[in-house]
């Protein structure tokens, strides 16, 4: 049904979102917004989001909210919605979440099973950002993220796909995450699963995509 890639990144020199004060959140937003001026698209600050824009972003699954109880308990959702924004590239496929769980979530969504197009869109957007910003990085752990499960590449590659019980069993053999269509904690409805890599650490981006591609091919083989 759709393919999605997202990369979690934090900017070197700033506290992580769980330890940020309101002024620092707003400064991260200012810095990132300045960088994104070089990218065709539109920035939507959440503290002044018009109802029609909110509906459009929700319809395209490009809006994040403040309903996660784990992020709330960690202080990541403090000062909501100040310092938060969504950037949508002009092509409508790629975007950036600013000050969600991490300073940046760079992502792309494509129709059908088309990880190559999603990867190209994410790479193009990230390349512009990396020219101006330095990310928190460890030679041992890779990119540093709020959630330990994202350490390493910080990358989640996921496919939204209807699965039969047999296909679900085949996918589980590849140690993948299988969730409901709305992501972590959501219920599976009508057999539609979000299938994603479980590991980010100790793998390259190419490893993750190749493993997901092999798992999908295995699960849906005749």
From TrEMBL:
Keywords, sorted A to Z: ATP-binding, Kinase, Nucleotide-binding, Transferase
Binding site for ATP: 2-6, 105, 156-160, 179-184
GO MF annotation, one: ligase activity, forming carbon-nitrogen bonds
Taxonomic lineage: Bacteria, Pseudomonadati, Pseudomonadota, Gammaproteobacteria, Chromatiales
Gene Ontology cellular component terms for the protein in this record: extracellular space
Protein name (Swiss-Prot/TrEMBL): Phosphagen kinase C-terminal domain-containing protein
Pfam families: ATP-gua_Ptrans
Annotated Phosphagen kinase C-terminal domain residues: 1-222
UniProt keyword annotation of Transcription regulation present: no
Domain of life: Bacteria
GO process terms (BP): phosphocreatine biosynthetic process
Family: Belongs to the ATP:guanido phosphotransferase family.
Xref: InterPro entries: ATP-guanido_PTrfase (IPR000749), ATP-guanido_PTrfase_cat (IPR022414), Gln_synth/guanido_kin_cat_dom (IPR014746)
